[in-house]
Write a structure and sequence with these properties.
TIM Barrel; binds manganese (II) ion; 8-stranded parallel barrel; binds phosphoenolpyruvate; globular; single chain; about 15% strand
């Protein structure tokens, strides 16, 4: 099997590879959280989100300028204006930026502001796009397609590696199941353990798209860290009820400090820490049971 994804295969790099973005290392001892709104909506929305993300101690800001949407009538992002807002947020806060590239024609513009280029679930199979972003020479977050087998996902990563870009991070974001009543997708945490075993690439988890529900994000953050994830991609909005996209699965940015503490608690249990919160939190008191649950009050 390894022969099919010969560069991604774990056998190629026994200890596992890391992807660095400045002083942030994905795939090392520290767990990296990438947090922000689904979509860039305005300068003020993005700045409010960015400040909350930075204050909670997370190093990477997410936000889509180009949004893949099921309906062509839905909000599809601010496009180039969204990129300008992301650039401003980066300059004003010092956070690294992750944002999606949907088309070969946008690669250069997006790579001009993004520290990590995101390939969305719908684009995982578009091999020409994978090659085009590989050529941009930036770190790439490769989401698993929602109907992609694990092998197809690893082979998509292989397209990027074969092209000469070895800075690939895998992202499990949930696959289609038969029961859409309570969750949007089935978050496949076994795939995290498989990906860590089969490949040497860092693996992160998106519990926001993985569940489609804000109240399930925190339990899945805990489970993802316990399953061996190297990081998380999480949607958070200053006012989820007014979000133009995916508000129902977005945490309120006011809840981010709680998220940070919870992630750190599980990270410690698996001998890791959350970047760079671990250092600040060492010696902190354990949380009282009354606050050890999500803001929704859902008990896990
Ligand atoms: C996103 O992260 O904004 C997104 C569109 O996710 P996915 O490609 O996993 O649907
Ligand atoms: Mn979204």
């Amino acid at each position: 099997m390894s022969a099919e994804y010969r560069q991604a295969a774990r056998a190629n790099s026994g200890r596992g590879s890391t992807v660095s973005i400045g002083d942030i290392t994905v795939g090392g001892e520290q767990i990296i959280l990438m947090v922000g709104p689904c979509a860039v909506e305005s300068h003020s929305q993005m700045m409010a989100a960015a400040i909350a993300v930075r204050e909670a101690g997370f190093p990477i800001l997410r936000g889509g300028a180009y949004k893949p949407r099921t309906s062509p009538y839905a909000f599809r992002g601010l496009l180039e204006d969204g990129l300008r807002i992301l650039d401003a947020a980066r300059r004003e806060t010092g956070l690294a930026i992750i944002t999606e590239v949907m088309s070969e024609t946008d690669v250069e513009a997006v790579a001009g502001v993004a520290d990590i280029l995101q390939i969305g679930a719908r684009s995982m199979h578009v091999s020409r796009l994978l090659e085009a972003i590989a050529d941009a020479g930036k770190p790439i977050l490769l989401k698993r397609g929602f109907s992609a087998t694990m092998k197809e996902w690893f082979l998509a990563a292989e397209y990027i590696l074969k092209r000469g870009n070895d800075r690939v991070i895998l992202c499990e974001r949930g696959i289609r199941g038969f029961d859409g009543e309570y969750t949007r997708n089935v978050l496949d945490l076994a795939a995290v353990a498989v990906a860590k075993r089969e490949t040497h690439l860092p693996v992160i988890v998106d519990p926001s798209h993985g569940t489609g529900r804000a109240d399930l994000v925190l339990p899945m953050v805990r489970a993802a860290i316990a399953a061996g994830a190297d990081g998380l991609l999480i949607e958070a909005h200053p006012d989820p009820t007014s979000a133009m996209c995916d508000g129902g699965q977005s945490l309120a940015t006011a809840d981010l400090p709680h998220l940070a503490r919870e992630a750190e608690t599980i990270a410690r249990a698996v001998s890791r820490s959350v970047y760079p919160i671990g250092a600040k939190m060492r010696g902190a008191e354990p949380l009282p049971a009354s606050v050890a649950f999500g803001s929704s009050g859902v008990r896990t």
